[in-house]
Amino acid sequence: SNLPGDGGTSAITGKIYTELYNESNILYQEYYSPDEKVYIVYGDNIGYDDEVSTSYDGTYKFEFLRKGTYTIFVYSDCLGCPGSFETRMVEVEITDNNSVIELEDIIIEKR
């Protein structure tokens, strides 16, 4: 199959980084985020296809992926956004089998 999804030999990895704000909207702590849910969308699918939680050092990994386009996203607190959160997403293409793609840190806010 040429569709993105599981059943392949590649992986996408990265880290989630949290900026923590206090009630006065002042940044007072920053850290790599443990136990943060990270979601992946295969191709143009609606909704997410899989989720993982970050480890103690903020890292996540989606494995056994086929070639194709993927979207990685996490939720970030957001003042003034609907529901008070927004998604922070990164689109990535896997072009080769047996590859590991390391994404830049995704930065989220906690309030």
Question: Main traits of this protein?
Answer:
9 strands; 4-stranded antiparallel sheet; mainly beta; 111 residues; single chain; 0% helix; elongated; 5-stranded mixed sheet
* Oligomer state of the chains in this structure: single chain
Number of helices: 0
Distance between the termini: 43 Å
What about the largest sheet? Answer: 5 strands, mixed
The number of E-state strands comes to 9
Structural class: mainly beta
Describe the 3D structure.
With 111 residues, the chain is mostly beta strands. 0% of the residues lie in helices and 60% in strands. The protein is built from no helices and 9 strands. It has strands at 6-21, 27-32, 37-42, 50-53, 59-65, 68-77, 85-94, 100-102, 106-110. Strands 1, 2, 5, 8 and 9 form a 5-stranded mixed beta sheet that branches. A hairpin with a 5-residue loop joins strand 1 and strand 2 (27-32).
What's this model, at a glance?
The chain is built from no helices and nine strands. By secondary structure, the chain is mostly beta strands.
